[in-house]
Design brief:
- There is one protein chain.
- This protein has about 675 residues and is of the alpha+beta class.
- About 25% of the residues lie in helices and about 30% in strands.
- The protein is built from 15 helices and 38 strands.
- α4 packs antiparallel against α5 and α12 packs antiparallel against α13.
- The chain is globular and about 90 Å long.
- The termini are far apart.
- About 45% of the residues are buried.
């Protein structure tokens, strides 16, 4: 029996495992980097051990440090969570060699599925449908598009879609670099890319000896960005029972070929067009094996909801109880999960870092569990938590469970709209837009759904900036120590409106004895924390939170974060024309151009890594690289000058033209 369990992970997944352990009476041990010391998972554990450094390589990827923490804390079992070392056969062996209980499948199974090329060979022998791998050296235009994938790891890292042969060498190099950074293995392979593919995965569980495999339903995870899942649901909408049963058989064969123990997921790519064609028939739609994740999935709560199971408890049972030979469960209702990320979809999903100054999600029936229909939240952060650049950008998962899919979606939309998440840009409003999209409502999703999707807040809602300006005026009036009885912005003779300048908006307004006036709006009431406006006969309430120069505004139209523009800009903060600035804090991992090099528009100049993803900084136009101000391995802050590209000088008549001929 397990008495004290160490979770070799952080944030939301550590809290999730701790919740089950508390219910079962198992003591818990948290490990944490110094920068994570203030996060909720550390405080919730019975014991906590600090790791040597903040970077993953110095903390959650240090096998020796994790085993030392287990020894010092008296843990007798280790749960890897997901990410980091969750799919490391070396870590699993080290845990077992130390005499501890490993919560997961055998090292041999992890190793077999960790190498995606070898995994395909095993699946082929087990008669599981496959996509054939392609030789990058012999690819032709007829093979396009293709997908470059990391042979080790997952989570969208080391993955690139290639639609032009000329881009293949660069994408191969980029995928190898990202895979090496994320997994310590730069091996990649190439396979066909299905433009209209759906990502459907099957949950499996194997008993203590790996001889009995139970199938626990399926999930659709097609809505993704950068090949990372954003929306997941169970059961998959619009997939007929014949196709599901074929997937269940394939998943059972895949797990059986490994003698699989514990919780795992077999992922398939479903041909969306073929699935639509056979949806109302008894035929099986085309699908192919993608990979098998030998761990708990991020999206496991939707299966827990509709199946009435605790998958963490099942993991523990598989590790310690040889008498449990199978799991049975019936489906009930529908569950939809969204991942809240600290990122800005409008700015290319740029990750955000800083303090989460406000955090509130309404109508939650449970955290890390779901006692009945309603909203569940699994969060790694709380109000006041610091979100750093060292780790993944996911803040929380919000799960909705209801009798039908339509009810689950509507319930989730309402909760997200009323959520209050301040201090950082998030994808909350994009999630609402996805969930209310007619195609999503009809179950018409594919892995490229977000590629042409309009993200972010409705740009027509300029009421948020008006509300921010008026609330700020009242806020300043409340803080006056003199002339407190004088109306805001009162003048004997008003010659012009007041102007409030934000970084991305300007609001002109009038004040005085009769209150506030704004062209195009009726101002019904103004307080520092709430403004009510009327436009075209429709009244809208805006909730406002003011913190220094930052103002968070929430309304039924979404959230908007505004920053006051400085009244007197600092000349030292001005940058030379052509300066390439760091879009976020991060580490320089490669420099692709040197001083004096000619570059074209969109040509990579350098690459940053932040929040476990790589971001390429490109030249905005043709020119000459005049400065490179950073080096590989250097830490940079948001807004730092990385390089300067000057305008392209007139061409030398002796230079060859773009076709290689003398001018």
């Amino acid at each position: 029996m397990i008495h004290r369990l160490l979770v070799a992970n952080r944030g939301e997944i550590a809290r999730r495992v701790f919740a089950t352990c508390r219910r079962l009476g198992i003591e818990t041990v948290a490990v944490h980097s110094p920068v994570d010391a203030g996060l909720p998972f550390v405080a919730e554990a019975d014991y906590a051990v600090v790791l040597p450094g903040d970077a993953p390589a110095e903390s959650y990827l240090r096998i020796d440090a994790l085993l030392d923490a287990a020894t010092r804390s008296g843990a007798d079992a280790v749960h890897p969570g997901y990410g980091f070392l969750a799919e490391s056969a070396d870590f699993a062996r080290a845990v077992l060699d130390a005499g501890l209980t490993w919560i997961g499948p055998s090292p041999a199974a992890i190793e077999a599925m960790g190498d995606k090329v070898r995994a395909k060979e095993i699946m082929r022998a087990a008669s599981v449908p496959l996509l054939d791998s392609l030789d990058p050296d012999t690819l032709t235009a007829a093979d396009l598009p293709v997908l470059v994938k990391a042979a080790a790891g997952g989570g969208g890292r080391g993955m690139r879609v290639v639609r032009e042969l000329t881009r293949l060498p660069g994408e191969l190099a980029a995928a190898r670099a990202e895979a090496a950074s994320a997994f310590g293995d730069g091996a990649v392979f190439v396979e066909p890319y299905l433009e209209l593919g759906r990502h459907v995965e099957v949950q499996v569980w194997g008993d203590h000896g790996g001889s009995n495999v139970s199938v626990l339903g399926a999930r659709d995870c097609s809505v993704q960005r950068r090949h990372q899942k954003v929306v997941e649901e169970s059961p998959p909408p619009g997939v007929n029972q014949a196709t599901l049963e074929a997937m269940y058989d394939a998943a059972r064969a895949a797990a059986g070929a490994l003698g699989y123990t514990g919780v795992g997921t077999v992922e398939f790519l479903l041909d969306a067009a073929d699935n639509a064609a056979v949806a109302d028939q008894g035929d099986v739609a085309r699908f192919a094996f993608l990979e098998m994740n030998t761990r708990l999935q991020v999206e496991h709560p939707v299966t827990e909801a509709v199946r009435g199971l605790d998958l963490v408890e099942l993991q523990l049972q598989a590790a310690e109880d040889p008498t449990v030979l199978g799991v049975t469960s019936a489906e009930r209702g529908h569950a939809v999960e969204v991942r809240l990320y600290a990122e800005d979809p409008v700015a290319g999903y740029r990750p955000q870092s800083g303090m989460l100054s406000g955090w509130g999600i309404p109508e939650v029936v449970g955290e890390f569990c779901q006692p009945g229909f309603g909203i569940r939240v699994d969060a790694g952060y709380e109000s006041g938590s610091e979100v750093t650049t060292h780790y993944d950008a996911m803040l929380a998962k919000v799960i909705s469970w209801a009798p039908t899919r339509q009810e689950a979606i509507r319930q989730l939309v309402g909760t997200l709209r009323r959520a209050r998440i301040h201090g950082l840009a998030t994808n909350r409003d994009q999630l609402v837009a996805v969930l209310t999209d007619a195609r999503f409502g009809a179950g018409e999703m594919w892995t490229g759904f977000l590629d042409d999707f309009a993200p972010g807040v409705d740009a027509r809602d300029d009421g948020a900036s008006v509300a921010a300006a008026l609330a700020l005026a009242e806020h300043r009036a409340d803080r006056r120590r003199v002339q407190r009885g004088v109306p805001v912005a009162w003048r004997n003779v008003s010659s012009q409106p007041q102007r409030t300048e934000f970084a991305d908006a300007t609001v002109e307004w009038w004040g005085g004895r009769t209150g506030y006036r704004v062209e195009g709006f009726g101002v019904l009431s103004v307080r520092p924390d709430q403004v009510r406006l009327e436009r075209d006969g429709v009244r809208t309430s805006y909730s406002v939170v003011i913190r220094d120069d930052h103002i968070d505004v929430d309304s039924p139209r979404g959230h908007r974060r505004l920053t006051l523009a400085p009244r007197f800009p600092d000349p030292a903060a001005q940058h030379a024309s052509g300066s390439l600035l760091a879009p976020m804090p991060g580490t320089v991992v490669s420099v692709a151009a040197g001083v004096g090099d000619r570059v074209g528009p969109g040509q990579p100049v350098l690459t940053l890594e932040a929040m476990k993803m790589q971001h390429t900084v490109t030249a905005p136009s043709a020119g000459i690289v005049a400065e490179i101000d950073v080096a590989v391995g250097q830490q940079v802050a948001a807004g730092d000058v990385l390089a300067v590209v000057t305008e392209h000088p007139p061409a030398d008549p002796t230079d060859p033209d773009p076709d290689g001929e003398p001018r």
